[in-house]
Amino acid sequence: MTIRNAKVEDARKIAELHIEGWRRAYDGIFPEDVLKELDVTDWTTWWSDMLQQSQVITKIVVSEYGTIVGVVSGGPLRDSFISGYDGELYAIYLAPEVQGTGLGRKLFLSMAGQLQEYGFTSMIVWLAVKNETRYFYEKYGPVEVKRVINQYGVEDAAYGYTLQNLTDIERT
């Protein structure tokens, strides 16, 4: 497997992986119609826009067969109502066949390192409180910064991290 910078031409495959990840992660959490109506064209446009922003870091994992099996993206904090944090992990999604291999940890910690290289000192990760992936993020010692009800009626939590702590973990 190869990890490389994502390009605009990767947007559709990233969108497909992102939608697949949402449908798996949020099944039984988000309203069923929301998950059914996720549109790859809309998400491709969103990813194309993200990939053209200079402060957004996006890496993909490409399998030996040329398939995108992972994506991680981060950059400046997008929510002005959270203070004390400057960076954000926007997305991390893995295809089912690479989950549980340590790739998620590698992408999470490497994104923390990249954000730190770009001058950020901290990061926020948003997640649905009922999503079991929160246990993955809780292993790295976050502070719960805020809880909100999102536009779908689902409770989300913002977990905050100090990037130095995460990059220290990455080195061990």
TrEMBL record:
InterPro entries noted in UniProt: Acyl_CoA_acyltransferase, GNAT_dom
Segments forming domain N-acetyltransferase: 1-164
Signal peptide: none
Pfam families documented for this protein: Acetyltransf_1
GO cellular component terms, A-Z: ribosome
Entries under PROSITE patterns matching the protein: GNAT (PS51186)
Keywords: Ribonucleoprotein, Ribosomal protein
Gene Ontology molecular functions: acyltransferase activity, transferring groups other than amino-acyl groups
Protein name: Ribosomal protein S18 acetylase RimI
Organism: Salibacterium qingdaonense
